[in-house]
What we know:
Elements: H1 2-31, H2 37-40, H3 43-71
Helix pairs in contact: 1-3
Amino acid sequence: KLRWRIVATAAALALVANWVRVVGLVLIGHHTRMQSPLMQDHELFGWVIFAMAMGLFFALAARMERSYRAANP
């Protein structure tokens, strides 16, 4: 059961992180009239969002595991 919760959390977080990336790029492009250097090369932006999402995922997964172990000694 814990594994499925962790997998579901990872999938949900991946979807949210991708939408944050997409919306962020659209807003940056709109507000700078596509003149931001980020519009030409936005690969780093995606990696930063990915790294933040992974950090959050590992923190959440560790917390879920601790909670599970405390409830099931």
